[in-house]
Specification:
- This protein is of the alpha/beta class and 201 residues long.
- It has one domain: 2-Layer Sandwich (Nucleotidyltransferase, domain 5), CATH 3.30.420.10.
- It contains 9 helices and 6 strands.
- The longest helix has 19 residues.
- The protein is globular, with a radius of gyration of 16 Å.
Length: 201
């Protein structure tokens, strides 16, 4: 089975998991990036205020998303881009929590997809002082990107997974999960499990 997956990263308007305001997606086929996509998202009512802290982190303001599609409108595009792939995210608890939270807030069904956390993979692949996305990406040879830009962060995540797979001689995500003692987790099951508030990597 080839190394196929879709890396994903979200930015949020505030501390609510339902407040997704941007997404970046990177498709990998056979260990090679073949497609990229990114767009703004208008958070649902009640989750749409932009906190000063979040804006300071990612630079997105309310005006940027005023005419963007809502979560319910863009979820089919996200699912279509993933095309059944396992998702990869750095500190996946945050990004998968965003999907679950936004679906709950908009009464949408959580997509039936699996995911792998590149943070866990990095911890079992590299010896670093920190495993934050910029540091782990640097270990994978991916540098000079703008952290907290959703597309750039998803590209960094993809680079970590591809490099780690090469280091472990893994030909698929299943192989990589076994080699690093991690697992592919069903998003639906994870969404049904209460979690503490998570933070972006």
């Amino acid at each position: 089975m080839p190394l196929d997956f879709t890396a994903i990263d979200f930015e949020t308007a505030n501390s609510s998991r339902a407040s997704a305001c941007a997404v970046g997606l990177v498709k990998v086929r056979g260990g090679v990036v073949v497609d990229r996509a990114a767009w703004f998202i208008r958070p649902p009512a009640g989750h749409d205020s932009f906190s000063e802290w979040n804006t300071r982190v990612h630079g997105i303001v309310e005006a940027d998303v005023a005419t963007a599609p809502t979560w319910a409108e863009q979820l089919p595009d996200l699912v279509a881009f993933a095309a059944g792939d396992t998702l990869a995210a750095h500190n996946a608890r945050f990004d998968m929590g965003v999907i679950a939270g936004a679906c709950l807030a908009t009464f949408e069904r959580v997509p039936e997809l699996d995911y792998l956390c590149s943070l866990h993979v990095a911890r079992r692949t590299y010896s670093l002082e920190s495993y934050r996305l910029p540091v782990a990406a640097r270990a994978a040879g991916f540098t000079g990107f703008r952290h907290h830009d959703a597309l750039a962060d998803s590209e960094a995540c993809a680079a970590i997974v591809i490099h780690a797979a090469s280091r472990h001689g893994a030909e698929s995500l299943d192989d990589l999960a076994r080699a690093t003692g991690t697992r592919l987790t069903p998003l639906v099951r994870s969404a049904a499990t209460p979690t503490r508030p998570a933070q972006s990597a």
